[in-house]
Design a protein that fits this description.
By secondary structure, the protein is of the alpha/beta class. The protein has ten helices and nine strands. Helix 5 crosses helix 6 and helix 6 crosses helix 8.
Length: 315
Amino acid sequence: MSRLLEWKEQIGTPDHYDFPRERKLVKRLSSEECECELYLQSNGIRPDGTVTFQRLVLAFPKQFEGTLPAVAVPFYYPEAALGFEIETGNILSQFANNTTMLDIVRHGYIAASADAYHLTYVEKELRDDSQDFARWEIASEALNAEHPEWSGIGKLVADTKLVIDALEEDPRVDADRIGIAGHSLGGKMAFYTGCLDERVKVILASDFGFCWEQTNWDAPWYWGNKLQTLKEIGLEHTSLLAAAAPKPFCLLAGEADNEESRKRIYSVPGYEAEPSRILVVDHRSGHRPPKYAAEAGYCFLDYWLKTRSLKDVAF
């Protein structure tokens, strides 16, 4: 069995998970720097037949003609990727320094982000905080009970692929030039989805913990108890990235990711002929990347999504 098939087997496939594919425009909103569209997108079905939905936000430059390349920006929820509330313009204090989605729009892309499944899989009133780990626990417990053959990381990838669907199907998007970018939790989602979805042409991930020991991969909303199995059969992220090689991949390392991440990434087979398709920026200044490191990542996206050809080019 190939390593890629091993990964897919461990990630799992949910049983009885066919649901109607719906995406409904709810409203259009305008901010100082971008135009936004808010959708409700179906993203699953519960055992009782209830269809679940995730809020999906598309963000556009204020003015453009024709089509643009696009970048999916998975995170806790869309406003957290923008750094502000789209309906009020109010800054989100806990995410004020995380403006990845807005930064990407500033670079001339269409950007898209959606709610993660801790907000969509179960209906439960908890603290008004979408990072509330009690909510993550409840959602992942329900997912694991209803789909023991699946995994939390599998659900995160499935929902992120729906964001890619929305971009691919939008006539304003150049569907041949879709990338993915994410920080922390979003970095995990970006890495897995980018490696597993051929429609994604380039991956930018920030401080998500490339090595198992660097972060909470054993959390039930990621791998849970399955992490031990992955270790026992020798599955490391180097083999997942190798399966996607030579897809361009940039890591912004800073806290969870470090020199060990860099060494392992540069050892991944499949990039020998084109080493410029791998870039690690180790800013070593904490979890959130400083502006220069983030800009290096955006320049990597720019090169691989805005060059004349996405094949046989050098960085």
